[in-house]
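Hey Z.,

So I finally got round to the magnesium ion thing we talked about over coffee. Here's the setup:
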Amino acid sequence: MKKISIIIPAYNEEESLPMLYERLNKLMNEIKNYEFEVLFVNDGSKDNTIQIIKELRKKDERICYVDFSRNFGKEVAMIAGLDYTKGDCVIFMDADLQDPPELIPELVKYWEEGYDDVYARRSSRKGETWLKKFTSTMYYRVLQSLTRIPIQKDTGDFRLLDKRCVNALKKLRESQRCSKSMFSWIGYNKKEVLYDRDPRIAGSTKWNYRRLIDLAIDGITSFTTSPLRISTYLSIPTFLVLFVYFVYVVIKSFVVNMPIQAYQAIILLILFFSGIQILLFGIIGEYLGRIFNETKNRPLYFVNEYNGEKEMNE
Ligand code: UDP
Ligand code: MG
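And the result:
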């Protein structure tokens, strides 16, 4: 029997866990033709989260857990989940029931049809402020404009991944992680499923704007080095202005037959040297970008099929 592994990062979620277990348990008992594993990653919770998980495990051996030594953040909790999973596929879910477990059968259905990455796209977001919705839309737009790899809009981490996506993700071991862009980067057959995102059932969101901004910057900088190119691009207009002004000054001095004025020379010098500086920054940025990409030590590609057989990328 195939095993489905549900990975749930949890940080101070004592209030949500009982209800979460109840809904998961009901669902797992309904789906008879699969084995299940619910893998909690306790991300250094300061409340009773781990005790509750341990109690759940006592009465239900499908519950597994990884307990972190401290709070490492959701991104790291997710990769730890991938490292410890025993499933043939994994499903990422939040502990606060914002991702309805009832969608799981549909995700599994598409997995059985041969899709490797079945991601749930929010058709609505209840209980979130317009500011959060607005900033997240803008963020996706910026991120997408910086890269050629297609990025899924309105998609969180709620998704089903086949074993080989898991193997692929396990090879991306960089420390500043942005799962969203990694899911896109590894590729494979993707399938979209729509759902309504519910408000959190209990407790409060662990995110604040500082964390979100950190995540956004990590997302952009871990994904693309194009911001480093800003400098290279800026030097071009600077040199253009320099050139135009130079021609203007020289022609004018001939026409009115007057030597070049001191202030004109100063403007020309400033333009010249700042242009050179910006250009040099750009060159350094280009090399820095290359070093950065190499130090990530990512594999260069993943193979989907070999001789008609799905590649597991062991
Ligand atoms: N989470 C985590 N570590 C953290 C912060 C959050 O494991 O440092 C977990 C949290 O327990 C929840 C999920 O990540 O299961 C999403 O967090 P939250 O609901 O607070 O984020 P939001 O849904 O508001 O984006
Ligand atoms: Mg939430």
